[in-house]
Automatic annotation (TrEMBL):
<feature type="transmembrane region" description="Helical">
    <location>
        <begin position="20"/>
        <end position="39"/>
    </location>
</feature>
<dbReference type="InterPro" id="IPR037294">
    <property type="entry name" value="ABC_BtuC-like"/>
</dbReference>
<protein>
    <submittedName>
        <fullName>Iron chelate uptake ABC transporter family permease subunit</fullName>
    </submittedName>
</protein>
<keyword id="KW-0813">Transport</keyword>
<feature type="transmembrane region" description="Helical">
    <location>
        <begin position="283"/>
        <end position="305"/>
    </location>
</feature>
<keyword id="KW-0812">Transmembrane</keyword>
<keyword id="KW-1003">Cell membrane</keyword>
<feature type="transmembrane region" description="Helical">
    <location>
        <begin position="245"/>
        <end position="271"/>
    </location>
</feature>
<keyword id="KW-1133">Transmembrane helix</keyword>
<feature type="transmembrane region" description="Helical">
    <location>
        <begin position="311"/>
        <end position="333"/>
    </location>
</feature>
<feature type="transmembrane region" description="Helical">
    <location>
        <begin position="73"/>
        <end position="91"/>
    </location>
</feature>
<feature type="transmembrane region" description="Helical">
    <location>
        <begin position="111"/>
        <end position="144"/>
    </location>
</feature>
<keyword id="KW-0472">Membrane</keyword>
<feature type="transmembrane region" description="Helical">
    <location>
        <begin position="156"/>
        <end position="176"/>
    </location>
</feature>
<comment type="similarity">
    <text>Belongs to the binding-protein-dependent transport system permease family. FecCD subfamily.</text>
</comment>
<dbReference type="InterPro" id="IPR000522">
    <property type="entry name" value="ABC_transptr_permease_BtuC"/>
</dbReference>
<dbReference type="Pfam" id="PF01032">
    <property type="entry name" value="FecCD"/>
</dbReference>
Length: 340
């Protein structure tokens, strides 16, 4: 066990394996980020990439690395970390490896909110607030529908799957009835891509995610008590439903921000916490390793999306393929456990 101290007021006890795994994941994400900055139509060596990042470069390299490629790489890290953290929160609250915003329907809510905004406005100008509103409204609706003297994980997942199906049908209907140009914009956005995102998108995403982290941090201090069970947490003085609602809102803001800016990048929130848990061999879900795993997955998936195919494909398509295989694996493992 390692004790990490921040000043003299804050300290954390972290298992050594968790700390080492997290550092290795961060190193892997950094290596993938440098590869993302180096590989492209203009090939740049890793050494020149590092020299450019620290300011010792030429104007041409600065344009390619800093202006063109760096926002995309940083957004991949930021979005992946946000999705990994959101998945860890949902899976901790539901105590279920399928308790992900992809499955519960919050991504579908953000998508529906964005599509409605695009149809109403006729452009993507207000898609970010529309997606945020859709995601948060869906989270509150799922929470209220699942509430029966408290919210239990299995009921939350079942209600979320039902809401996802209804929102999917609504979104498909709206896209079919929309003008061709609006439907085309919705379809492009729905693929989930980092193409065309700039520094202004990075600033907007970082600001919103920072607000979400404050909400999550305020409620997350008592998440460990919730792991003991609702009754035990209440006995310790934790306001269970208030903390749970705060975590749901914060985690929904994380996923809705990603969906608003890049479209749905699915399965990262589902897979990251479980992959991190297996690497750290911890009994429960851990937030920081999950976020590190999410950042690593999105950056690597974006590298594949950019360079592994004859044409550029959205990163969301890569994560769907990988995540689909992962979901089948999880279901097979769960089925074998039930048979035993």
């Amino acid at each position: 066990m390692v004790v990490l101290r921040l000043g003299g007021a804050l300290s954390w006890r972290v298992p050594l394996r968790t700390l080492v795994t997290t550092l290795l994941l961060c190193a892997a994400a950094a290596a993938a980020a440098i590869a993302g900055l180096a590989i492209g139509k203009v090939q740049i060596s890793a050494i020149d990439v590092v020299r450019t990042l620290v300011g010792h470069t030429t104007p041409a390299l600065e344009t390619v690395v800093t202006d063109w490629r760096l926002p995309r790489v940083l957004l991949g890290l930021l979005f992946g970390g946000a999705l990994g953290l959101a998945g860890a929160i949902f899976q901790s609250l539901t105590r279920n490896p399928l308790g992900s915003p992809d499955v519960i329907g919050f991504d579908a809510g953000a998508y529906a909110g964005a599509v409605i905004t695009i149809i109403a406005v006729g452009s993507t100008a207000l898609v970010i607030p529309g997606a945020l509103a859709g995601g948060i409204a869906t989270a509150l609706a799922v929470y209220l529908l699942a509430y029966r003297r408290g919210v239990h994980g299995f009921r939350l997942i079942v209600v979320g799957i039902a809401v996802t199906s209804m929102l999917g049908a609504l979104t498909a209907y709206l896209v079919l009835k929309a003008p061709v140009e609006v439907a085309r914009m919705s379809a492009i956005w729905a693929a989930g891509s980092l193409n065309g995102l700039t520094w202004s998108d990075l600033r907007a995403g970082a600001a919103t995610i920072a607000v979400a982290l404050v909400v999550v941090g305020w409620s997350g201090r008592q998440l460990t008590a919730l792991d003991l069970g609702d009754d035990a947490a209440a006995a310790l003085g934790v306001r269970v439903e208030r903390v749970r609602l705060g975590l749901l809102v914060g985690a929904t803001m994380l996923t809705a921000t990603v969906t608003a800016l890049a479209g749905p990048i699915t399965f990262v929130a589902l897979a990251s916490p479980q992959l991190a848990r297996r690497l750290t061999r911890s009994a429960g879900i851990r937030m920081v390793p999950s976020a590190a795993m999410g950042g690593c997955l999105v950056v690597v998936a974006d590298l594949v999306a950019q360079h592994a195919f004859p044409a550029l494909v959205p990163v969301g398509l890569v994560t769907i393929v990988v995540g689909g295989c992962y979901l089948v694996w999880v279901l097979v493992v769960q089925a074998r456990k039930e048979i035993r």
